[in-house]
Amino acid sequence: MQIEEAVRIVFGIAGIEDRTDLDNWCLGEGRRKLYVWIQRLAPDHYNRLQTPENSVRACYERMLPGYRIYRN
């Protein structure tokens, strides 16, 4: 599984539709909570990357309204 697909799955399960939803879901853990979920769902892709957190961040910033690079 690729990181982008894993992000979509997590967002679907958690009902995350925008930046505020993501902030509320992560709460005190920051984005670390999301990174752990993505690493579990897409370990091969995640572990191949030098900076997997940056890839996850790029995905969710493109997917969610509330970010500058949101593209829908």
In short:
The chain is 67% helix and 0% strand.
Could you outline the blueprint of secondary structure elements for this entry?
Blueprint: H1 3-14, H2 19-26, H3 32-41, H4 43-48, H5 52-63
> What global shape is seen?
globular
Overall mean confidence score, pLDDT: 93
Low-confidence stretches: none
Largest sheet: none
Oligomer: single chain
Beta-strand portion reads under 5%
Which structural class fits the helix and strand makeup?
Answer: mainly alpha
Proportion in helices: 55-70%
H/E topology pattern? HHHHH
The number of distinct helices, counting runs of at least 4 residues, comes to: 5
> What is the number of beta strands?
0
Distance, first to last CA: 21 Å
Q: How large is the radius of gyration?
A: 11 Å
Task: Quickly list its features.
mainly alpha; single chain; globular; 72 residues
Structure characterization notes:
Helix content is 67%, strand content 0%. It has 72 residues and is mainly alpha-helical. The chain has one domain (3-63). Helix 1 (3-14) packs across helix 3 (32-41). The radius of gyration is 11 Å and the shape is globular.
